[in-house]
Amino acid sequence: MTLDSPPSAGLHQRILDNLSHAVLMFDSMLELVFINPAGEMLFAISTRRLLGQSADEILPADSPLLAALRRGLQSGHAITEHEVQLSLPGQHKLTADCTVTPLRTRPDDSGLLVELRPLDHQRRVAREEQQIARQQTFRTLVRGLAHEIKNPLGGLRGAAQLLERELPAADLKEYTAIIIGEADRLRNLVDHLLGPNTIACKESLNIHRVLEHVRQLVSTELPPGIRIRTDYDPSIPHVTGDRDQLIQAVLNVVRNAVQALGDEGEITLRTRARRQFTIGSRQHRLVCQACIIDNGPGIPEELVENIFFPMVSGRADGTGLGLSIAQSLLNQHDGLITCKSRPGHTQFCLLLPLEAASPSAEKTTAPEERNQA
User: Fold this and answer.
1) Which of residues 267 and 355 earns the better pLDDT score?
2) Mean of all residue pLDDT scores within the chain
3) Closest by CA position to 332, among listed 314, 346, 352, 310
4) Looking at residues 263-274, what average pLDDT do you find?
5) What is the rounded CA–CA span in Å between residue 212 and residue 96?
6) By the 8 A CB rule, do 58 and 296 touch?
7) CA-CA distance, 251 to 213, in Å (whole number)?
8) Which residues of 207-244 are buried (b: 16+ CB within 10 A; e: fewer)?
9) Which fold has domain 203-353?
10) Confidence of residue 360 (pLDDT cuts 50, 70, 90)
11) Cα Rg of the chain, angstroms
12) Is the four-CA dihedral 307, 310, 312, 317 of positive or negative sign?
């Protein structure tokens, strides 16, 4: 790609690096000569491995994108395809709008500029925005209800205590004790519905140390038939967060996975760095993605959209508060928890932006027990 001058080249490079959609450039022989970071994330293969490969090597023979590249090279006209089903390396499939634009750098030569705008990404952003808005509305409603409930509850408890002092017989005081105990239980339930009310005390953290701490805690409670394995990316920088709150959030999700498995199964703790990634409607240059994956029966489809709301649970004896609290804790870190589930594969991903991390912070070193059972 020929640019006017070094300052202009740097500006153009920054623009391409920060685009949220994939941009690729092929030469006249359909060999890849450029791909931006969003494209690298889309193909899930490093730029070093992709550059120099031909389109035939990167894409399946029946790929509609490969056909569009050949038509664009032959016709010399821009081609736009909407809602194209693409099969990418690693059995990765997505739906995207594709634009192929011929670039004639010389009369006898021509390259192709390719733009891929994944529609799956747009749908995910819209879904996350809706999820965040619904949770904020729900929390506002619960705070109002909590105020209306806790005031008369406090009066009820106080009246029971006064009555207890006046009762002459000890057996009668058992009834006031029940009233006081149930009032306390309802107050605690309301407090849990409100979620965490402490301000996060943030510091630079190694996310793998958080995950390993949770793994060690849970390992002492596991049935013999359940194993935990790790798949960590050691290149992830430190995150900025409250250690205790992040431990609590991860612990809630992991314990939820253990309960879903019952007596047998596998849980995977996986970390990855995501570039040019959106959380809700905000795009971040770099995001830490920590996933808790289990091979249990999965979550019913009708529950997935509401799984982070209090009192929503897939178990008859569940309160549904664990995931709700975990989501609230991630929201305090400008992050989000997402959920995808099908029978045999349920994945909760904790997303934390990395912009706030100290520039001088060293890269996270994964513990020695990488991929350890």
Assistant:
1) 267
2) 80
3) 352
4) 93
5) 37
6) no
7) 9
8) bbbbbbebbeebeeeeeeebebbbebbeebbbbbbbbe
9) Heat Shock Protein 90 (3.30.565)
10) very low
11) 27
12) positive
**Residue-level pLDDT at 130:** 66
* Strand 239-241 versus strand 264-279 pairing type: unpaired
**Identity of the amino acid at 261:** L
Residue 314: both structure tokens together: 């897939």
Within 8 A by CB and 6+ apart from 224, the residues are: none
Round to whole Å and give the CA distance between 321 and 312: 8
Residue for token pair 């891929």: 116
Q: How many CB atoms lie within 10 A of CB 367?
A: 16
Nearest-angstrom CA–CA distance, 154 and 201: 31
Q: What are the percentages of helix, strand and coil residues in the chain, rounded to 5?
A: 45, 30, 30
Give me the torsion for CA of 200, 205, 206, 207, rounded to 10°.
20
pTM, rounded to two decimals: 0.58
Amino acid at 116: L
Please tell me the predicted confidence (pLDDT) of residue 372: 38
- Topology annotation, domain 6-118: Beta-Lactamase (3.30.450)
Q: Give residue for tokens 């925005």.
A: 129
Look at residues 92, 90, 81 and name the one whose alpha carbon lies nearest to residue 116: 81
